[in-house]
Each structure stands twice: as structure tokens, then as C-alpha cells.
Specification:
single chain; about 290 residues; alpha/beta; Rossmann fold; globular
């Protein structure tokens, strides 16, 4: 099933690459949070992959953490990958390559760690991509990734949908479908990962006007790449009506408007014989009531 036009995703990132540092605040924030989680794992990962690296925000956040000796920075956009492929890890070496998450060019059991920061929500075959990631990991290798979830930009969605119905009398596919946190744990299990965990948090950004949010989304390369999206520009009347609805519905006492980003984080391991195994259901010897 083709939900996203991957060529459009690449074009959006190519266009955003030159001025990305003016708009990469969300990538930088989630990169720091992923790096903090890696600090909790008391192991070294000599060979790691940053899959969907954008401008290298994650490599800068890592800053020699995780025992990484070599970091490969891969992105669908060659322009993005070139920006990320700079020595940002102290003694570590960052390698840059253009690569598609849906067709990974890595040998089986070759990587100690795969990281991905806000990129996998643009993948058509997410189960297939997860299988490829698991196959590329060495036994007991770690997969740590963040992606946008279903509640992302619910304010903007509401405003644009209501404006389009009012002005144009119908709806067009303006937004990408996002995965649900409850589904991602199941997808990790289906892909053959061990010890899968998926959780989420919401990052809320405050804007003076909704138009500044739209500029940031374009500057991040995160604009609509739905394969069924309309091929013409939005009507001016629809856009301005949406901005009016956004301000009326969501502006706070200070006159600023929020933009919500639901960030889902996935943690899972490639299977290995010596990993901890969950006990069989019903095998517990201590009643939960005693613990409480």
C-alpha cells in the first residue's frame, strides 16, 4: 500500500536542507531525548546507524555517548545526508550516505545500534522497514527510535478541515496518517524484536501566529507528501479562514497559539539467546496485593 509519495518526501527534504538550522528545533529536542535514553543503557555500541538523519541533529546530541566509534548517517535526501556527515562525535567518525528506509543497504547482523529520529512516520511499509532494521542488527543489538504519532498537530488539522468544508464544501487529504502507540509495540513484535516497548509524550510549541508554524513545517521538510494530496495550491480564502479558526479556537490569554507534537519512542532489541525472557502467564508466586 502506497500512502506516501516518497519522491515528494525526498524533494521536501532537499528543499529544506539549505536552511534547516533555522527550523530544526523539534529534531534537535527529540534528538536530545533519544540520546538521554541511550545513557540509560550501560553498554557500548561501536557501529551505529542514524536512519533518517536530517541535518545531523542526533549525531550532535550523542557527542560520544553510547560508546559509538563509527556512526553512519543515512537519509532519503542526499543533501540532508551530506549536512549530517561531518565529524560530530569527537573521536568517532560520521559517514554520510543516501539510503531509503524501505530498502536498507546494510548487511545482515552488521550493526550494533540503529537510531532513528522523527523519520519513520514517512515510511509506507513500516512493518517491512522494521524487519530490515532487525535483520541489520547484530544479536542483542538495540533499536531506539522516535516518530510522530496520531495526535500530532491536532489544532492545525481541526482548523484546516473546518475551513475547507466551509469554503470549498469538501475535504482533501492534507495530512499524513500517523501510527498509534498501541500498534507500534505489536509491530515491533511482528518484526521479530525482543523486549519491545513503545511510549509517547507530547511536545507543545507556542507560536505568535499559525503562519509561523506553517513556515517551520516547510523549513523542516515536513509538509504534506500524501500520495493522494491535491496537486494545486490551497485557495487563499481557505488558508486565511483556517488561520482565523486556529486563532479563535486555540489562542491562549497571551494571544499565542499552541502546536502539539505527539512523539512516540520505540525501544527494542534484536533477539539473542542470553536475553531475559518473560515468565509464563500465571507463573508468579507473589500476589500483587502483597506488593501494594
Amino acid at each position: 500500500m502506497t500512502v506516501f509519495n516518497r519522491r515528494a518526501v525526498r524533494q521536501h527534504r532537499d528543499r529544506a536542507a539549505a536552511d534547516l538550522t533555522a527550523h530544526d528545533f523539534l529534531f534537535a529536542e527529540t534528538a536530545e531525548r533519544l540520546a538521554d535514553r541511550l545513557d540509560d543503557v550501560k553498554r557500548a555500541f561501536p557501529l551505529a546507524l542514524d536512519l533518517g538523519c536530517h541535518g545531523g541533529e542526533l549525531s550532535r546530541a550523542l557527542n560520544s555517548r553510547g560508546g559509538i566509534e563509527t556512526l553512519a548517517c543515512a537519509d532519503l535526501s542526499e543533501r540532508m545526508a551530506k549536512q549530517a556527515g561531518t565529524p560530530a562525535l569527537g573521536p568517532s567518525l560520521a559517514l554520510a550516505l543516501a539510503a531509503d528506509e524501505e530498502a536498507l543497504p546494510f548487511a545482515a547482523a552488521s550493526l550494533d545500534l540503529v537510531l532513528s529520529n522523527l523519520s519513520l512516520h514517512w515510511v509506507n511499509d513500516l512493518p517491512g522497514a522494521l524487519v530490515q532494521i532487525r535483520q541489520a542488527l547484530k544479536p542483542d543489538g538495540l533499536f531506539l527510535a522516535s516518530m510522530l504519532g496520531g495526535a500530532t498537530l491536532h489544532e492545525l488539522r481541526t482548523a484546516l478541515y473546518e475551513a475547507e468544508i466551509e469554503v470549498e464544501g469538501g475535504l482533501s487529504p492534507r495530512f499524513s496518517p500517523f501510527a498509534d502507540v498501541r500498534d507500534l509495540g505489536n509491530l515491533l513484535q511482528r518484526a521479530g524484536f525482543a523486549l519491545p516497548v513503545a511510549d509517547f509524550e507530547t511536545i507543545t510549541v507556542s507560536y505568535e501566529t499559525p503562519l509561523k508554524l506553517l513556515r517551520d513545517l516547510r523549513g523542516m521538510g515536513e509538509t504534506n507528501a500524501n500520495s493522494e494530496r491535491r496537486r494545486t495550491f490551497s485557495r487563499r480564502a481557505t488558508l486565511f479562514k483556517a488561520m482565523e479558526i486556529y486563532m479563535d479556537r486555540f489562542a491562549g490569554p497571551d494571544g499565542r497559539v499552541p502546536a502539539s507534537f505527539e512523539v512516540i519512542t520505540m525501544t527494542a532489541w534484536a533477539p539473542a539467546p542470553d536475553q531475559p525472557k518473560p515468565l509464563a502467564p500465571g507463573s508468579g508466586a507473589t500476589p500483587l496485593g502483597d506488593a501494594v
